[in-house]
Design a protein that fits this description.
Layout (H helix, E strand, L loop, with lengths): L1 H12 L14 H5 L2 H15 L1 H12 L3 H27 L6 H10 L8 H25 L3 H31 L4 H9 L6 H4 L11 H15 L3 H19 L5
Helix pairs in contact: 1-5, 1-8, 3-5, 4-5, 5-8, 7-8, 7-9, 9-11
Length: 251
């Protein structure tokens, strides 16, 4: 089972919040010398704080899959752990997140349900892929030593999350081959799940990170056996034809 393998990997890779991060050594002055990094961290922390809401709404799609819901039990625990760790760091450098702000972002889309299961799984995998690379790029920029320790742990976790959701998509394709198109379309029309929390203020560690985008496309093409470039060309051709037809122009 995917869960059994993932559980063992998670246990062997787990880091201890209290003992593995040297909180007492934080250099607040050095941290505050990079306000752009701290602002990005703060937005990321708010997104991670949304884990209980992701759980509540995701399990409405995954409840009948023992494997997917079991993976989620680890996923949401670690996401909230990320929030708790980031919040602690931000508190200690003077950029705390009040509880009311966490509640406000939860209220924003409380009543909006998630739709198709395959699309949601794909969105989760892609979001985790970009989140992993976000923390990796932020690690490359951060100077404060304790933050670098923390970011190293987050990067490891996020890459592991992206990989297990890839495995769940593989299983979903085996069970339901027709979900291939939904996965491809979700990739091409992707919107990070964090937008549900912070809107268009999604933190970006590096603009036009083509390497990260290319690695995602290769991953999805390997998963689905579909050329995303050719699929997108066909979508554009069909769309253009539909517009011309509606205008009375022969297609």
């Amino acid at each position: 089972m995917i869960y059994e393998r993932y559980f063992k990997l998670t246990e062997s890779d787990r880091w201890e919040l209290e003992t593995d991060v040297p909180w007492q050594e934080i250099d607040a002055g050095m941290a505050c010398g990079q306000p752009d990094v701290l602002e990005k961290l703060r937005s990321a922390a708010l997104i991670e704080s949304y884990a209980p809401m992701f759980a509540l709404k995701s399990l409405s799609l995954w409840w009948e899959s023992v494997e997917e819901s079991a993976i989620a039990s680890i996923q949401f625990f670690e996401e909230y752990k990320h929030y708790y760790a980031l919040k602690r760091y931000l508190d200690r450098v003077g950029m705390g997140i009040p509880e009311r702000e966490v509640i406000e972002v939860r209220q924003r889309n409380f009543g909006t349900p998630y739709g198709d299961r395959a699309r949601h799984l794909a969105n989760y995998m892609i979001s985790e892929h970009f989140t992993a690379h976000f923390y990796k790029r932020l690690l490359e920029q951060a100077k404060e030593p304790v933050l670098r320790v923390l970011l190293n742990f987050l990067v490891r976790d996020e890459f592991r999350h992206a990989n297990v959701f890839y495995s769940l998509l593989e299983r979903r394709l085996e069970l339901e081959p027709a979900t291939r198109e939904a996965i491809v379309e979700e990739t091409l029309r992707f919107r990070h799940q964090g937008a549900e929390v912070v809107g268009e203020a999604i933190p970006i560690a590096q603009k036009n990170d083509f390497q990260t985008i290319l690695s995602l496309w290769k991953k999805v093409e390997h998963l689905t056996g579909v050329s995303l470039r050719e699929y997108r060309k066909e979508l554009m051709r069909v769309s253009t034809g539909a517009v011309q037809s509606s205008a009375g122009i022969p297609v």
